[in-house]
Amino acid sequence: MSRARVALGLLALVALAGCAGTGLGGAPAPSDEQLAENATYDWDRDADVTLNVTGEQYKTVADVNGTERVRLASTSGFGGRNPVLISAVQFRYENGTVVGADAIDVSTRDQRTVVDLPAANGTFAYTGSAGTRSVNAPLDFEGSHEVVLPPGMRVSFPIFGDVSPGGYEKSIEDNRVHLRWESLDSATVSAEYYLDRDLYIFGGIVGVLAVVAVGGVVYYRLRIRRLEREREQSGLDYEQ
Q: Could you give the angle at the alpha carbon of 112 between the alpha carbons of 188 and 75, nearest 5°?
């Protein structure tokens, strides 16, 4: 093997190691414009941490106690970490005063989104991205958690719905599923959900496929019987 090939091999290993450590190079820190985006948050909640999923985004409102730093990172397929892209950051002091991005420092370090808050006690709020049928939110908060899914979405049917971690309570209020955990500690909360009509569509597809399958079996059975009769009539089936 030539030195050139060895060098190329080493470069490839270094590149792969870099991808594994940063999640394909990681993600840039949110821009000032993203951090300063307008958003309306519900500061009055029953849970210590709430995720309100609407469309393809979620709004997190979380109590922080005794810490001025929050770290947010998702795991990559290579076992590394990726920073979580957030926007519309706000912080509410214990006296009720709300400040925006100008008072909150957000950066990307060690493949994490690092948020330095203006006080160690208060409530931190931000917006993250969700899918059309799923949400995955790494959280760096302790206490009770609640996730509110978009209107009409459900998680009960195993093939289409899934929630992690387990141990949650589920209820439906105003056509929205509420998932509640009594206590979580720096957990990644994820949910896959569906519309009721998705089940009807799936059931219709399964029904059509079942009819086609049964029709195919009946057709081939009739075809085999017909061939057997033709053989008998032609005298091909007889004993010596």
A: 45
